[in-house]
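Bumping with the actual sequence this time:
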Amino acid sequence: MRKLTSSKNSISSSMWIIGCLFLIFSLATDLSIASSLPASTTTTTSSTLAISDRKGFASGSSSGIMIPLHRSSRLPTRIRGGAAANNNNNKAASIHSLSGFGPIQTFLQTLRDARKHLAAAAVARSVSIFGMYPVDTIKTRVQLEQANPLRLAGLYAGVGGSLFGQVPYGVLTFGSYEMYKKTLTEKYSNIKPIFIYALSAILGDITGSGWLCPSEVVKQQIQAGMYDNVGSAIQGIWKKKGFFKGFYQGYVGGLARDIPFRVAQLTSYEVTKNLYLRIQNEKKMMTTTTTTSQQQQSIAWKEKRNRKKWSSSTNSGGKSSSSIIIPAKKTELSSIEAAVCGAIAGSFSAAITTPLDRIKTLLMIDSTSAYGGSVVSCAQTIWKQEGPSGFFQGLLPRVGYIAPSVAIFFIAYENVQQRFF
């Protein structure tokens, strides 16, 4: 009964946190960030990432949830006369790239330009995390080899702390990604953009991990049943190990999971995207070839019927057969297609990094140093005690978490954008 009550309290507190985070984020981006930058500055940002076909989505963490990125600000193509035209002309004169900003200004300007997208993403990310949190809890229980991991009691334990860590983490990784991308592009202009995007995403993850790790430690220890709620977990961890040793235990294990996950996700996304585009383009070419063949047969039949000599490039309607428009090759993905490809890439990446995820989980709940306190010693202990299969504990719930998370996020994001922005 006490655990069920704790679960209900966690759910209600998490809903309160979602509302507060949304309100605080909106106010912060509109007031604090805007006031720290020149009011007359309008910046065009290209917030793109290789993982999302540079269509406006970035993966927030190894959970695989996609965060919409800000798209380039553009002036209307049709501008009416009068004051509106003068105003838009003034704006056009002030538009420039982020190359004139320093790293911190780039970070702040990125958040300012993307505030509406990030606010919608914060809500969508909260909904996605909240909706799939029970699966994450079950995964942790399986990795810890607890009895009856599917029990209902405590499925939402620690969800409030997880939201408090994950949502700002998304903002930090997004802003720092742009900062790193700008710096690396300027310094290494001869390197292919895909490598710049990948390295920037990894560095963004590392930057955000400083905020994320404490909330992950709290969340996982609550999921493991070591504490009943966020407050008692924070107090207990602080008393036992202090701030850094307590809240950053397993930090290296988290990075050891997240960096390979990011590399695998970027690579698998590109492979999935390119394969999908190739199939779509081949279908278009087949359809076009069939249509052209039918038109040529029709021309030949009309020539025979009318007993006239026609040019091979004309038909009875006076239209040239060479005027058939061959559709251009598809090079970009729609938002839905990007989400599907992201879900596939995320699921694959989650599967191959499950061993690292298990190590990270064990290190974060290891209050007695039974696993040695390091990635190598933890891996050795798992191998000795459980064999190779021990590294893949929790594989199914981890993989099963990704695709629904992306779908929930995408639906929530689109609805928030349409209703409020």
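The tokens above came from a reply further down the thread. The beta strands are 57-59, 66-68.
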